[in-house]
Write a structure and sequence with these properties.
The chain has a two-stranded antiparallel sheet with strand order 1-2. Helix 1 crosses helix 13 (270-295). The radius of gyration is 27 Å and the shape is globular. Helix content is 70%, strand content 4%. By secondary structure, it is mainly α. The protein has a domain at 71-257: MetI-like (MetI-like fold, Orthogonal Bundle), CATH 1.10.3720.10.
């Protein structure tokens, strides 16, 4: 009788290797997240040296936030995100299509990749401080404009709504378009060259190839880029915080939701801060789900649509 070989299982080693991640996540992410949700249902703040709470008040923090300027700050966040994201995705798509097009024969691609990615390596706080210095009334931009005769007096870029929002959008664009370009280039290079060669044989021009082949085939990366950008936009804090000195000027038109959250944390109002964090979590979840549903293609080869069409035709024939 043959002895049965004892099967060896290495699953325990896999669990052992991933255990540190779950321990770290549990201690530093999951517990604080649960605690944040718990605080959102309590009155818990500091008034002078006196600490109030924690006293359970139910949904009052959530109701108070809806009656506050939270909606206005949400609109500010959306506008600032759009100003930065729209040129970012457009320029990134154009550059990615150019750099991956073998017909253009662009030299020094590695150099250009490094150059466009460099702003992503600069800290946002340093970037904001640099722009604050450049575009201040006594800064070099105003000096150049006055010296060449374009303006007679300094322009207060940060004194107008358009100027401040444009600067914030420009900084977000410069910091992130390089990273987006590299990701889109990787996605385009993952497309089989046979597809592009077949399109050339069919007589497709560059624009048709871009819209009918490239864009549909990099849809998963576009969805990922859009979702991460939405999450990053909702977390926009450091650039407008430094550029406006935490005030969201002019007239709080540059105040974002995270800056509003930070003001509650500074005043030790942990209940309101917790409720606002829950609102941000819900909003980001809903937006990401909508984007995923819009960009996810469950029938990339058209087989499901063809099967449904055949089923409808068979039902029609059966009725006859």
């Amino acid at each position: 009788m043959k002895k049965r070989r004892k099967s060896l299982s290495y699953a325990k080693w896999g669990y052992l290797f991933i255990l540190p991640f779950f321990i770290t996540y549990f201690i530093f992410s999951l517990i604080p997240m649960i605690d944040t949700v718990r605080y959102s249902f309590f009155e818990y703040y500091r008034s002078g040296i006196k600490e109030i709470g924690p006293n359970f008040i139910g949904l009052e923090n959530y109701i108070s936030l809806l009656q506050s300027d939270m909606v206005k700050y949400g609109e500010n966040t959306l506008i600032l995100w759009l100003i930065g994201f729209i040129p970012q995705i457009v320029i990134a798509l154009i550059l990615a299509a150019w750099f991956t097009d073998v017909r253009l024969k662009i030299r020094g691609k590695q150099f250009f990749k490094v150059v466009i990615y460099l702003p992503n390596l600069i800290m946002a706080s340093a970037f904001a401080l640099l722009f604050f210095t450049l575009f201040s009334t006594n800064g070099p931009i105003n000096s150049i404009l006055m010296s060449i005769g374009i303006t007679k007096s300094p322009i207060d870029f940060m004194g107008s709504v358009l100027g401040t929002r444009s600067l914030i959008g420009l900084m977000n664009f410069l910091m992130w378009f390089g990273n987006t370009t590299i990701m889109l280039m990787a996605a385009i290079m993952g497309i089989s060259m046979d597809v592009f060669e077949a399109s050339d044989l069919d007589g497709c021009n560059s624009i048709q190839r871009f819209f009918y082949i490239t864009l549909p085939m990099i849809r998963p990366i576009l969805a990922y880029t859009l979702i991460t950008s939405i999450i990053g936009g909702l977390q926009m804090f450091d650039v407008p915080q430094i550029l406006t000195n935490g005030q969201g000027n002019p007239d709080r038109t540059s105040m974002t939701l995270i800056m509003f959250l930070n003001s509650h944390l500074k005043s030790k109002n942990y209940g309101m801060a917790g409720a606002l964090s829950v609102y941000l979590f819900i909003i980001s979840g809903i937006l990401c789900f909508i984007v995923y549903r819009m960009t996810n293609d469950n029938d990339p080869d058209g087989s499901k649509a063809a099967a449904k069409k055949r089923a409808r035709e068979e039902r029609r024939k059966g009725k006859r």
